[in-house]
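One thing: mind reviewing this one?
=====
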Amino acid sequence: MPLDFTFTEEQEMFRQAVREWCSKNLTLEKVREIDTKGEIPREIIKGLADLGLLVMTAREDIGGANADWVTTVIAAEELGYADISLAVPVFFLVQAGWGFIVDRYASEEVRQEYVARAIKGEGFVGIASTEPGGGSDVAGFKSRAVRKGDKWVLNGEKTYISGTEEAKALNGGYFTLVYTEPEKGHRGMTAFFLPINAPGVEVVKRFEDMGRMGISTGGFVMKDVELTDEYVIGEVNRGFYLTMEGFDCARLLVAATCVGAARRALEIGMDWIKQRVVFGRPIGKFEGIQFDLADLWAELEATRWLIYRTAWMMDKKYKEGTFAPREVAMWVSMCKLKAPRLAFRVFEHTMLWHGAYGYTKECPLEMGLRGVMSYYIGAEGATNIQRIIIARELLGREFIPYR
């Protein structure tokens, strides 16, 4: 298999266009404003839409760009670099990842009504999987959908869901996983597109997160929500498998945004250590700082190319069927395992280089530390889940620990 680590001319031009837009519209001052006010301005959302970034993975017949995964990762990396708080990157990646799944498997009615509007910045498509009992233990989910006549009736609760206030304001909705035949375990789960403003859906709270302040995190309750078959995503009782596919898409983009933010942090750190003088010389001349920088930069480059290699595999999987889904899932899990932890470490170390100044809100780095922490903790899949997926592929399914 030939190796080629170059981007196409179109991809380089795309990266430059995104970078230029971000340099004008997502300055560190603007990011601080977003973080302080707790919302993404409408003009930023419109700008993302005008640039073709919102749900850029959707097909062209409804206004999407039908973007490949390498190109989508480029967008994620550049947005992470610009908005180190990760609020705008989360708004982007949730929709690029889960919007891809909804566009790929949902009915034409849902695509035209919800995905098409999200592409224009006039809607929102998210993921609602986690329940009060946890997110990784799918078998412990309690949400149900029961068939009654020509409709499905949904009851249950979802929590720690990204973008609930944005979805409500934009009349959007969620890829929502519930049981339809609980006795079958994960083979009895079905995915629905749940409009957030449907009768019987109640958004119950906004969590006061420590980071990603510009985008809401909330929960909602479903009380006898009636949906027709048009809102079933894919096939009945195949929802678990679509969810795993969606996690692969979202996790890859999570990793890319974390790498982008970490690259920005190291650049901020390098500017500081060149200028900060102690004992008559810049602190960048001290080996203790240089060795730290070298180690972090080398690991960041290795992780970055791991992500782009995985994006290339994703493109091969969807376009040519070259790689099996489980093989790609393992590589995606390696990206999700490495990138958030590395990004957190980068922000930690660069803040230490800044001394007392790094502990103030005059220094932008603290926004990044708080932002990447959400993905370090486990949003879009806990760290140990990624390890289980990787070990499963290395050792075989008979070594899955929870069986």
